[in-house]
Amino acid sequence: MRAATSQVEQLVLVLIVCLAALGSSQAYEVPRATVKVNTPHGFEVSVPDEPGITLFAFHGKLNAEMEDLGDQTWATDVVSARNGRWTYHNRLQKLQPGDVLYYWTTVRYNGLDYHSYNQRHQVGQDDAKGQNVTIDLTSKGGSHLPININGNPTINIFVS
């Protein structure tokens, strides 16, 4: 009887450990991606940075749903975050209002890959409008001013 009780206790312990491991691996949810259309062409897809993320992958196709995981126009791994975001940059593709970007993303979190499949973004009229940027060059005597556009450093200007 003692041996049977010991085996049951061991089985319960193994079951608890397995359920705890399963629960922790299923706890992470891939952040919803943000799609930004750039003008005159290009777009960005990004997720916010957070501790534990070591990779962001984007897989996408324009105006046609993906039939399987290998059916894509763009597939890129991003290995570092910038300005608090993991961002895929496409500088060539021109997007028009009505275009649909079909995509899926992967985030490597604490060494495990998590996926967000079957995503889509339809380009609207507001997406395609030009973006005006105002740059303030006010300075006190002879300093270098970094210029950031949409949060990205672009150039330095010397103001005297």
Please give the number of β-strands. 9
- Which regions have little confidence, pLDDT < 50, spanning 5+ residues? 17-21
- Structure classification: alpha+beta
Order of helices and strands: HEEEEEEEEE
Number of helices: 1
Q: Helicity level, as a percent range?
A: 10-25%
The average pLDDT is 81
- Strand fraction: 35-45%
Cα distance spanning the termini: 90 Å
Spatial order of the strands in the main sheet? 4-3-6-7
Structural Rg: 23 Å
Biggest sheet descriptor? 4 strands, antiparallel
Q: Choose one word for the global shape.
A: flat
Task: Describe this entry's structure for a reader.
A hairpin with a 5-residue loop joins strand 1 and strand 2. The longest helix has 24 residues. The chain is flat, with a radius of gyration of 23 Å. By secondary structure, it is of the alpha+beta class. 15% of the residues lie in helices and 42% in strands. It is built from one helix and nine strands, in the order H-E-E-E-E-E-E-E-E-E. About 3% of the residues have low confidence. It has a four-stranded antiparallel beta sheet, with no helix packed on it.
Layout of helices and strands:
Elements lengths: L1 H24 L8 E4 L5 E6 L4 E10 L11 E5 L6 E6 L9 E10 L2 E11 L20 E7 L2 E8 L1
Antiparallel strand pairs: 1-2, 2-5, 3-4, 3-6, 6-7, 8-9
List its salient traits:
single chain; 160 residues; 4-stranded antiparallel sheet; 3-stranded antiparallel sheet; 1 helix; 9 strands; 42% strand
